Amino acid sequence: MHSNITLKVRILGSGTSTGVPTIGCNCPVCTSDDPRNKRRRSSILITRKDNQENIVIDTTPDFRSQILDAKVSKLENVLYTHTHADHCHGFDDLRAFYFFNKTPINCYLSKELHPEFKARFSYAFTNTGYKGTTPQVELKETPNKPFEVIGLEVDPVRLPHGTMQSTGFRFGRFAYITDFKAFPKRSLAKWKGKIHTMIASGVRYKPHPTHSTVSETIQLFQDLQVKKGYITHLSHDIDHRRDSASLPPHISFAYDGLEFEVVT
């Protein structure tokens, strides 16, 4: 595993579970003309610039359109944060990569969620008699310790999210976490001062029972001494232009299609 690798990160989606616009809603954000208020479900693409190997974190229900917009033709690895529908229900579209690359995709998921994942997508893991192509994947365990993906050391962190745990990931000086209510103190001490750029969810300003809010995520960035923070998984409560003015200078709201580079 190597350091000083340049990664290109693309925000595939920056929205909460309903996406924005929300179906049936006529609020100012859902009817906004600002493209930064058009939010597909939350996911990112990570590309190693030296060899163009890709990692996607979460296959959302918008996965097909996200991948087409990003012009991705090959994919080696998917890291799943958890099994809520807005983070995994684009799984079936992974089968398209097998049409051309003929290589199974490594899908990483915490071991305790394997049974639920296999039950949701049973046709991909059992012989149902279906004659068409199903997603060709290798379902792997996300360990509770650092592991390697495409030559990168990935440091996972388990995060409380309602009745389950979500998994966040750190790639050297870059980290991505979503769908969490709090950040464990032990991991805070381990990651503090090591992250240059971080994407983390902050669903809205009002309190939420299972998600970090915008103010809580800002505080987390400060506690971790993050140099540049992006807040994602945004609901229609957040207007990009209006609410950006209240953020600290080193923190921004994510938006679909945003790209940046970071050195691990």
* Sheet having the most strands: 7 strands, mixed
Number of domains: 1
The largest beta-sheet arranges its strands as 6-5-4-3-2-1-14
Number of helix segments? 7
- Which CATH architecture is right? 4-Layer Sandwich
CATH topology: Metallo-beta-lactamase, Chain A
Structure characterization notes:
The protein is α/β, with parallel strands linked by helices. It has one domain: 4-Layer Sandwich (Metallo-beta-lactamase, Chain A), CATH 3.60.15.10. 19% of the residues lie in helices and 28% in strands. The chain has 7 helices and 14 strands. The protein has a 7-stranded mixed sheet with strand order 6-5-4-3-2-1-14. Strand 9 and strand 10 form a beta hairpin. The protein starts with 5 loop residues before the first strand and ends with a strand.
Quickly describe the structure:
By secondary structure, this protein is α/β, with parallel strands linked by helices.
List the defining traits of the structure above.
264 residues; alpha/beta; Metallo-beta-lactamase, Chain A; seven-stranded mixed beta sheet; 19% helix
Detail the topology: elements first, then pairings.
Elements: E1 6-13, E2 43-48, E3 54-57, H1 63-70, E4 77-79, H2 85-88, H3 95-101, E5 105-109, H4 114-120, E6 137-141, E7 147-149, E8 152-161, E9 164-171, E10 174-177, H5 185-191, E11 197-201, H6 214-224, E12 228-232, H7 240-244, E13 251-253, E14 259-263
Parallel strand pairs: 3-4, 4-5, 5-6, 10-11, 11-12, 12-13
Antiparallel strand pairs: 1-2, 1-14, 2-3, 7-8, 8-9, 9-10
